[in-house]
Design a protein that fits this description.
The two termini are about 35 Å apart. With about 600 residues, the protein is α+β, with helices and mostly antiparallel strands. Strand 18 and strand 19 form a beta hairpin. The chain folds into 3 domains: about 260 residues, Glycosidases (TIM Barrel); about 100 residues, Sandwich (Immunoglobulin-like); about 150 residues, Jelly Rolls (Sandwich). Helices cover about 15% and strands about 30% of the residues. About 45% of the residues are buried. The strands form 8 sheets. Strands 8-7-6-5-2-11-10-9 form an 8-stranded parallel sheet. The structure holds ligand FHN. The site of ligand FHN has 8 residues, from loops.
Length: about 600
């Protein structure tokens, strides 16, 4: 094995922070995988209103159809779920390998799915069922060892006259958010945090109109009643204990701090009888790995029907994930994100102590190579067959000093959809932190690896917590990368941007890319989609930018700047600032 000194010019770092036992987030980040349950009155119409299929997610039916409170309340006497079985649902979570469970105690329709002494619009007092399903779940979660958490819609409430966003029954000018909090939110949160034992988290949602003062008051109440209860990121105003991505969002690279992505198995959260577009087990397992590799928890949803039954396709998919986790769970639970900021083309990485897990999404080549890992490898084995060891060799690339690891996978059996190989290291991994050319020739220049230049008045361009650019609304702003190329040559340049599938495309901006003495300019496009995990909800849009030729190996610099921005008012939404949503620049070897 040839080992030498890494080139001093290459920035390297140990990327795994020591874990603190006293960290209140620890149980949650160790869990990595949770079960979300959206269950309420909306399961009765199941996405159909007056004989018509209503588009969008099922639990929004009341809002979409502007159904008056008195009309919607007619579902209440029909709610009598004969097949509700809390023990079976918690068992399903356990079989799936999910370690926490979040159920909708009250969603935006305002109907409480538990016995609420402070408000009669609840499942125990108002329905013929006269039952408290949250009490069942609390008992079963305790018995089966799953953390119980409650979802609570603290801002949107279409039933209470002062709750946000029902403007068809109530005059917005007369609404008092303070009265809504006093009459409904505070008493109900007090009940939820008093009557069901220890609660892992209150999962607040959709802070669209709430003030900072009110978010802070809600947080204080939770912490006063149960100091160890976590507060989700969507409490508003950055006051959560951790951060949440948008629904179904998969970040392009590793994130910093505690994050969670909640996601659907089909498209809806609340049960819809016509939504049969299910994600495949392979997609779901790969997504779990993808998120864990970026330090993100996966909260995956089921929407029981009005009888309390979990749709069979949901249960089957969750069990398939559990089967994979029973073999590979050590590479997910209690892990840290992979040490590199960017994705690798062959799969993902996670870390636990001195073990670096390589998660392969396809069978790797017999001679597999990894760039940038400086730490010595002691041995290599696959989780599915730990007795067998694979040969390895570490060296330094002669031209650049980049550490190179070669693995011999001649005898590796690939088990779809993801096969995990454990690299047992001499110490926690230390890696080259800058962008590196990969063995397949590609160079990943993602937003979080860039240096940001902004001369705009604040807030200017920055890299958002979710790994994308934010506030790129000024042509003086730029991103710049240093990267190491191992092979000189000619490369195709592609700029990748994204947007949320339900929103207007805020694109057509002209970008200018400068590398050495070469300048490339193009308008961003939305007609070339890159396939992949993110493509369902956050299409990755490719804009070909032409070619760059590099005469030498080593470190290079590339700068991307906006030259003309299309900033339309209609593109600014609750979720988008209308600027460039930049993901990455890809350099790939040009076909000769
Ligand atoms: O509006 C809700 C929606 O109904 C659902 O509860 C999701 C789950 O994350 N949260 C909101 C939209 O982001």
């Amino acid at each position: 094995m040839s080992r030498g000194k890494i080139s001093p010019a290459l920035p390297t770092a140990r990327r795994v922070a020591p874990r603190r036992a006293a960290d209140p987030l620890r149980w949650w980040s160790d869990a990595r995988f949770g079960l979300f349950i959206h269950w309420g009155l909306y399961a009765i119409p199941a996405g159909v209103w007056r004989g018509k299929r209503v588009p969008y997610i099922g639990e929004w039916l009341m809002f979409r159809e502007k159904i008056p409170v008195a009309t919607y309340a007619k579902f209440v006497p029909r709610f009598h779920p004969r097949h509700w079985d809390a023990a079976a649902i918690v068992r399903l979570a356990r079989e799936a390998g999910q370690r926490y469970l979040v159920i909708t105690a009250k969603h935006h329709d305002g109907f409480a799915m538990y016995r609420s002494a402070s408000n009669p619009y609840n499942v125990f007092d108002a329905t013929p069922w006269a039952h408290d399903p949250l009490a069942d779940l609390a008992r079963e979660c305790r018995r089966q060892g799953v953390k119980l958490c409650f979802y609570y819609s603290q801002d949107l409430d279409w039933h209470h006259p002062d709750g946000a966003w029902n403007t068809w029954d109530y005059d917005p000018a007369k609404k008092s958010p303070a009265r809504y909090l006093r009459e409904k939110v505070f008493p109900q949160l007090t009940e939820l945090l008093t009557n069901y034992g220890d609660i892992g988290m209150i999962w607040f949602d959709t802070p669209l109109t709430i003030s900072r003062e009110h978010s802070a008051a809600i947080r204080r109440l939770v912490k006063r009643l149960q100091p160890r209860c976590l507060v989700s990121g969507r409490i508003g105003h950055g006051l959560g204990d951790y951060r949440q991505t948008r629904d179904n969002y998969l970040p392009p690279g590793r994130l910093r701090g505690g994050w969670e992505t909640c996601a659907t198995l089909n498209h809806t959260w609340g049960y819809k009888k016509h939504d049969h577009e299910w994600k495949s087990p392979a997609n779901l397992i790969t997504t779990l790995v993808d998120l864990a590799s970026k330090g993100v928890n996966y909260l995956l949803n089921i929407g029981p029907d009005a009888d309390g039954r979990v749709p069979a396709p949901s249960a089957g998919r969750l069990r398939a994930m559990g089967a994979w986790l029973r073999v590979n769970g050590e590479a997910i639970y209690g892990t840290e994100p992979g040490p590199f900021d960017y994705e690798h083309p062959w799969g993902r990485m996670t870390v636990k102590d001195h073990t670096l897990y390589l998660h392969f999404f396809a069978k790797p080549p017999r001679s597999f190579r990894l760039h940038g890992l400086h730490t010595a490898v002691r041995s290599v084995s696959a989780l599915a067959a730990p007795g067998k060891k694979f040969a390895h060799l570490q060296s330094l690339d002669a031209a650049t000093g980049v550490p190179v690891l070669d693995l011999d996978f001649t005898d590796l059996r690939f088990i779809a959809p993801v096969t995990v190989v454990a690299l047992h290291l001499a110490a926690p991994p230390v890696v080259v932190t800058e962008a590196l050319q990969q063995p397949d020739g590609a160079v990943p220049l993602i937003a979080p690896l860039a240096r940001v230049g902004t001369s705009a008045a604040k807030p200017g361009l920055r890299i958002g917590g979710n790994g994308l650019t934010e506030n790129w609304r000024n042509t003086d702003d730029w991103l710049q990368w240093r990267f190491t190329l191992l092979r000189p040559g000619t490369y195709d340049v592609t700029v990748v941007t994204t947007h949320q599938h339900l929103e207007p495309w805020s694109g057509g901006h002209t970008l200018r890319l400068e590398c050495g003495d070469k300048i490339l300019r193009h308008r961003t496009r939305n007609d070339i989609l890159i396939p992949g995990l993110r493509s369902i909800y956050f299409p990755q849009l490719a804009t070909p930018f032409g070619r760059l030729t590099f005469a030498r190996a080593g470190r290079h610099t590339l700068r991307l700047q906006a030259q003309r921005l299309i900033l339309l008012r209609k593109n600014i939404t609750h979720f988008s600032d209308g600027g460039i949503q930049f993901v990455e620049i890809r350099l790939t070897p040009a076909a000769t």
